[in-house]
Design brief:
The complex is a heterodimer of chains A (about 110) and B (about 110). Chain A is mainly β. Helix content of chain A is about 0%, strand content about 60%. In chain A, strands 2, 4, 5, 9, 10 and 11 form a 6-stranded mixed sheet that branches. In chain A, strands 1-3-8-7-6 form a 5-stranded antiparallel sheet, with no helix packed on it. Chain A is globular and about 45 Å long. The N and C termini of chain A lie far apart (about 35 Å). Chain B is mostly beta strands and about 110 residues long. In chain B, about 0% of the residues lie in helices and about 50% in strands. Chain B is built from no helices and 11 strands. The chains are: A mainly beta (about 110), B mainly beta (about 110). Chains A and B meet through β4, β5, β9 and β10 of A and β5, β9 and β10 of B.
Chain lengths: ~110, ~110
């Protein structure tokens, strides 16, 4: 079983829909990283959080340390949001190395 | 603009050949990382370096080698000992390792076998 699990693996939506991507992890962590991988392969950092909630534009990330769960929400989704969203955690015992989930592939149709 | 530059974008390797992937950053970051991405799997760490002239093996270092002679450069060599090199390779950097610093990624190099 992977230490970082994401759901769903694939997600399709119509433009304007509210999107939720989930990340659960089984190790103690110092922080969690949400990343976006574009169709060409480049990766962009979206959020890093260790508690509570962060918001940037239409993106919202939340984390519940007790439940070992994080969610990434996209409000008013747009076709340009189509990408792979990756959750990664910094384990408490080894903050040098990120542990990555396998990603959630999102397609937003007009 | 500061960032990470990986080259080439596509690379082809013949059997028995070593190839080197370039990674350069102008973010003045101390730590640099190499990851491998295969379909359906999360990114896996190959090597990382916390400072110049020092580097550590990651989870899948066999068949790869690196050097860190300059702060801004961290090239990865895929040797002939790596029997399944076809993958997407990503380089990343962070201000320092530890203390959960966010990592910044390049656009990747796709390596294929001829």
């Amino acid at each position: 079983k992977n230490e970082v699990e994401q759901s769903p693996q694939n997600l399709t939506a119509q433009e304007g829909e509210f999107i939720t991507i989930n990340c659960s992890y089984s190790v103690g962590i110092s922080a969690l990283h949400w990343l976006q991988q574009h169709p060409g392969g480049g990766i962009v950092s979206l959020f890093m959080l260790s508690s509570g909630k962060k918001k940037h534009g239409r993106l919202i990330a939340t984390i519940n340390i007790q439940e070992k769960h994080s969610s990434l929400h996209i409000t008013a989704s747009h076709p340009r949001d189509s990408a792979v969203y990756i959750c990664a955690v910094f384990p408490t015992l080894n903050t040098d190395k990120l542990i990555f989930g396998t990603g959630t592939r999102l397609q937003v149709f007009p | 603009d500061g960032g990470i530059t990986q080259s080439p974008k596509y690379l082809f390797r013949k059997e028995g050949q070593n190839v080197t992937l370039s990674c350069e950053q102008n973010l003045n970051h101390d730590a640099m990382y190499w990851y491998r991405q295969d379909p359906g799997q999360g990114l896996r760490l190959i090597y990382y370096s916390q400072i110049v002239n020092d580097f550590q093996k990651g989870d899948i270092a066999e068949g790869y080698s690196v050097s860190r002679e300059k702060k801004e450069s961290f090239p990865l060599t895929v040797t002939s000992a790596q029997k399944n090199p076809t993958a997407f390779y990503l380089c990343a950097s962070s201000m320092s390792s530890g203390s959960y610093q966010p990592q910044h990624f390049g656009d990747g190099t796709r390596l294929s076998i001829l």
